[in-house]
Batch of 4 targets.
Target 1
Amino acid sequence: SQTIHQWPATLVQPVGSPLSLECTVEGTSNPNLYWYRQAAGRGLQLLFYSVGIGQISSEVPQNLSASRPQDRQFILSSKKLLLSDSGFYLCAWTEGGGSQETQYFGPGTRLLVL
Amino acid sequence: GESVGLHLPTLSVQEGDNSIINCAYSNSASDYFIWYKQESGKGPQFIIDIRSNMDKRQGQRVTVLLNKTVKHLSLQIAATQPGDSAVYFCAENLNSGYALNFGKGTSLLVTP
């Protein structure tokens, strides 16, 4: 069966520090991968998605970037964190090859920027 | 326009009653819809989905109804249990893209 992992689970970082959040998927090949951010009491905002290694699409302009160095690995990064980057970051995957598939979410990383 | 603020709509039901959570979607071109359940501090969990060529789909204790005429989606939970307490999100997929557009969520509180 497929599983999706995210780490760390919780992170407290000072403003201006770098960020690296990691997401890995097991049990599937060539998945589509997604990064979302969820502010407290809000819905999910799509940040990036990837349909293959090295292929990244950005949905909103921001202080963050994403990379996909391996088929089942998706990384969310920042060179300098802002206070507004605080939130709950969720990684999701779908079967590759189509867009109308259910997205399955990881456990999330809670980021607090101070 | 979109609502702002940190207070989700809340639905409070008694254990054993049926729950109905509603969602209005915006784009008539959306053709795939999903309901997710999110417990505090966890990622959203898939509950049930429906494609636009259907108007009803049933799962275990859950039913999703789709009314394309008024762009309305609902989730019915039968015999609601305390473990059903969570925030429920509907999501729509536009047939031209990879993104899911999520609603704001509804908080379901099940009381004994």
Target 2
Amino acid sequence: QVQLVESGGGVVQPGRSLRLSCAASGFTFSSYTMHWVRQAPGKGLEWVAYFSYDGTNKYYADSVKGRFTISRDNSKNTLSLQMTSLRAEDTAVYYCTRDRQVVHFDYWGQGTLVTVSS
Amino acid sequence: QTVVTQEPSFSVSPGGTVTLTCGLSSGSVSGSHYPSWYQQTPGQAPRSLIYSTNTRSSGVPDRFSGSILGNKAALTITGAQADDESDYYCVLYMGSGIVVFGGGTKLTVL
């Protein structure tokens, strides 16, 4: 069965960096575009970034552009999010999600919590 | 900057019908935005309900339906049940790699 398992969250000071990972299993990872979506405590969902299945395109929300980098390793079935220059407003649960067909997010991980605080 | 608008809250009686909408701060929603809908209960990851305007995701009951109504995407729940009480989010693809979530609608069934 399809599984997405995020890891790497934690408490980090403002201005520091953190790397999130998403381990995928149960499907052909290299055939799917993958996204990161986040949710600040008590707030709505916010799209963060995506990496196309064929590796040709990466896109970012304006709120993270220039600070976050999405990557994928199709040989290891892993999606990553390198986050730098973290701010308090980046505090959120970060979800990894599979895109079956143009923003059809059919599977989601359980999320990993990132807290940016001094 | 594009803002995707949703009703902040809505209430429906058990067995009733409710239509939640998803609009744009500027312009109309169409099928080319591939509107999709997600249900989320507290502490859980979102669940896909509808994609590409009106296609139900696997396992979603047929009392959930999607459409375009006027200049907005719409999610209609027919015969609302107590466990439909959740937050509902729409998502639009804006082109050029940009994806935008709506602010979400908190649905109360009472």
Target 3
Amino acid sequence: DAGVTQSPTHLIKTRGQQVTLRCSPKSGHDTVSWYQQALGQGPQFIFQYYEEEERQRGNFPDRFSGHQFPNYSSELNVNALLLGDSALYLCASSNGQGYSPLHFGNGTRLTVT
Amino acid sequence: DQQVKQNSPSLSVQEGRISILNCDYTNSMFDYFLWYKKYPAEGPTFLISISSIKDKNEDGRFTVFLNKSAKHLSLHIVPSQPGDSAVYFCAASVDSGYALNFGKGTSLLVTP
């Protein structure tokens, strides 16, 4: 049973560029959330997608946007990259049922130079 | 504004002894609490959870205690094993299906 898969695993971009990260949820899961984890910090919630719509959003600027596809996979897009966007980006999925824990992928390490 | 706080960045415990990891929170609306374990180069792995209607939940060697009046929860690992060495994150949410608020983590080292 495949868990949450993310691609790419590592990425290096230049300040001002745009980036797209991809996520496939665990089989049977329909809800996808994205988190940013800076060095030495806990993961910070970016947004959550359910039924192809953004259901909840954290305190991140509009440069961060996302999408969920009919097969429940998801993309995270970041425009006008800043040095401070360098972090581990984690995707997590759940089955949308109450008290269902999130299952995380291994993340995409983004470095902005 | 850090709503979930893990005030001990690191903890070292001998194999076979009890590990106690602590977590405090400030938002009284939190009703679902979880612990995750994270190894280097991997995503967080779910360990155990507890809802606000309970004060204790056990799963094998792992027990989570919730003290709502003190806004405090703890994770007990008994007995501790070297393979338990990892970073442990406490997380909480308002309404179980939504955003998780994480602490900064506690790095546990279990020595043989």
Target 4
Amino acid sequence: SQQGEEDPQALSIQEGENATMNCSYKTSINNLQWYRQNSGRGLVHLILIRSNEREKHSGRLRVTLDTSKKSSSLLITASRAADTASYFCATDAQDSSYKLIFGSGTRLLVRP
Amino acid sequence: DTEVTQTPKHLVMGMTNKKSLKCEQHMGHRAMYWYKQKAKKPPELMFVYSYEKLSINESVPSRFSPECPNSSLLNLHLHALQPEDSALYLCASSQEGGVGGFTGELFFGEGSRLTVL
């Protein structure tokens, strides 16, 4: 079952621009995570934000979480061609902390 | 060592074959996972092992049989698969801890790409 929906499904930007991806989910969560996947490769963890946090930064990444709206956003600033990848949000339901469910994903293309 | 190693990287099998996918981690993680991912789709959870015991089976068909021989190894035994089972199979592990178990990030392997003819 899919917990999160992401938009946009695909995003194409110029190098140096900012990229914003949004994630909405359905049930109460303990935390929300963002992962990156290069084509055909494994997923790499980017950042985790707990349900009692509203904003978190890591390098060029900024994540916000609004639990009242059940939504999160990932902002990548000053994008680079190497940021081209698929980005997934993932949530663990409060009733099952092992059950990390991924959103539908956003495919980001950063043009040089 | 922060790696999860999956073998084989590619596997082609017929519908009557029996094969296995293997996953290994040496990070001391006590939760291990199998996900299935079709092209341009998100990973879908299949199985979760916690302390070498199966804790979650997401109603996966019995032609997929997981096994956790020890805390470092996770296998997925495949038998009588269908062409629609062709996908990227991802193994992951996570650190156990605290009440409620799961504490944070999953570490993924590079996946095993399975083609069923």
